[in-house]
Amino acid sequence: MGGLPVGNSSESKLEQGSAVVKSTPDGKPKKKICCACPDTKKLRDECIVEHGEEFCGKWIEAHRKCLRAEGFNV
């Protein structure tokens, strides 16, 4: 039937791969870095596109601060 593999292994891979929130050993939820802090990321990216990286230190640092608060080491 279509040549697609049938079984739990492909289903579990899809479920695990699509998860955005993961648990850390202490039980605290952890997001992928690309999905964390969307508001500051948007402001940072817009500033860099419009004005250049050298003029956007305020937004870059705000995004880094947010990422650190989420548990990332940046």
UniProtKB/TrEMBL annotation:
Single GO term (MF): copper chaperone activity
Gene behind this protein: LOC111447889
Annotated stretches, region: Disordered: 1-30
InterPro entries named in the record: Cys_alpha_HP_mot_SF, Cyt_c_oxidase_Cu-chaperone
Keywords: Chaperone, Copper, Disulfide bond, Metal-binding, Mitochondrion
Name of the protein in its database record: Cytochrome c oxidase copper chaperone 2-like
Family: Belongs to the COX17 family.
Chain residues that bind Cu cation: C34, C35
Locations listed in the record: Mitochondrion intermembrane space
Principal location class: mitochondrion
One of the record's GO cellular component terms: mitochondrial intermembrane space
One Pfam match: COX17
Ranges annotated as spanning the membrane: none
Alphabetical list of Gene3D superfamilies matching this protein: CytochromE C oxidase copper chaperone
